[in-house]
Write a structure and sequence with these properties.
The chain contains 5 helices and 7 strands. It is an alpha/beta fold.
Length: about 190
Amino acid sequence: MSNLKLAIILGSTRPGRNGEAVANWVLAKAKERTDADYELIDLLDYPLPLLDEAVPASRGVYASEHTKAWAAKIKEYDGYIFVTPEYNHSTSAALKNAIDYVYTEWNNKAAAFVSYGSLGGTRAIEHLRAISSELQLAHVRQQLSFSLLTDFENFAVFNPSAAHDKAASVLFDQLESWAGALKSVRS
């Protein structure tokens, strides 16, 4: 097993969220691989209030214990897969808030995106790509987008087509490659 450590961040805290099934599917696919260790981070386990730090995250001065715990967790990883719903043509407020809490912990690492929504959540990914660029997160080209119309039964039971398996493999390949390369930048 490689020493690459990658996080799958479940970016929805909404009751009845579809994201949990999507994130668990991504984790199951990731566990089939041998070039990195993957871990699921559920934002429900990190209850971050609406950004309450007085000093900008780019300064790295964190006052609150919840921020220090979140920063320590994010710092552990070489890269991330963000699993996001699309709400009103963007990502979830919970995920954006969690991202904004820290800065240097994201720098010079790799990111990939998995989305779901009525149009596959692609607009949420576009916003996350812009945010990632500002955080110095190198985002890979491959993404996974699941439609509530075709990848969920009755908009609630996740049942993705097998066609997503190949795209997932490409996503993991790109993420692992970039995360490995960026380790040397951080050394």
